[in-house]
Amino acid sequence: MNEKQIKSLIGLVRRLHKQKYPVLAIVIIAVASLLVNNNWLKNAFSPTAADECKVLKVYDGDTMTLQCAGKSEKTKVRMYCIDTAEIRQKPWGHQARDHLRSITGETVRLVEINKDRYGRTVGEVYSGEVNLNLAQVKAGQAAVYEAYCKKPAYKLAENQAKQANLGIWSESGSHQSPWEWRKQQRSK
């Protein structure tokens, strides 16, 4: 907030006080003004409020290890909303991993959403302004993991990739539903 904005806010508070507004209302208006003018709300809920992290390893098309600023331990990340073919599902698993590596910078921003049953951080990963999770889906390198995805943009991107026959959608098979392939492997 610059000096002009501060003076304007002080003037507003004085006018409200002269007009006999309750002190609580004045405080609420002043705080709201500070938050809006400092873009606090925007920053608190946008990827720019995320952890800055160094990429240590990209395991496959939907999992990576990061070293995030201010944290001594490494963070293993399972990318939110997506599921890619396993590395053993050749060539699809390697293609998904290689695509993710090609679009991932040395540093990324991590927006943590929750933890999975294995203790991994589930989140959206950004390289610059690019949402890597969504980029994997748009390129046809990942399917939407509908059981865990609440954002409609992912399903829209998947439908577009399917229509364009991109990546995993260019040929039918179990690589299009990795969760089913893993289930089959466990039952063998």
Structure characteristics:
188 residues; alpha+beta; OB fold (Dihydrolipoamide Acetyltransferase, E2P); 2 domains; two-stranded antiparallel ribbon; 22% strand; elongated
Any overview of this molecule?
It is a single chain. The protein has 188 residues and is α+β, with helices and mostly antiparallel strands. It has 2 domains: 3-42; 50-186, OB fold (Dihydrolipoamide Acetyltransferase, E2P) (Beta Barrel), CATH 2.40.50. 40% of the residues lie in helices and 22% in strands. The chain has 7 helices and 8 strands, in the order αααββββαβββαβαα. The chain has helices spanning 3-18, 23-37, 40-44, 92-103, 132-138, 152-163, 178-186, and strands at 51-58, 63-68, 75-79, 82-83, 107-115, 121-127, 130-131, 143-144. The strands form 2 sheets. A 5-stranded mixed β-barrel has the order 1-2-3-6-5. β1 (51-58) and β2 (63-68) form a beta hairpin. It is elongated and about 75 Å long.
- Overall tally of structural domains: 2
Cα-to-Cα separation, first versus last residue: 62 Å
Uncertain stretches of 5 or more adjacent residues: 39-48
CATH class of the largest domain: Mainly Beta
Largest sheet: 5 strands, mixed, barrel
Helix content: 40-55%
Whole-angstrom Rg: 23 Å
> What proportion of the residues form beta strands (DSSP E)?
15-25%
Side by side, the strands of the main sheet go: 1-2-3-6-5
Using the 3D structure, state the CATH architecture of the largest domain. Answer: Beta Barrel
Number of strands: 8
Order of helices and strands: HHHEEEEHEEEHEHH
Principal-axis shape: elongated
Helices, by number, come to 7
Task: Determine the CATH topology of the largest domain.
Answer: OB fold (Dihydrolipoamide Acetyltransferase, E2P)
Category from helices, strands and their pairing:
alpha+beta
What is the average per-residue confidence, as pLDDT, rounded to a whole number?
Answer: 85
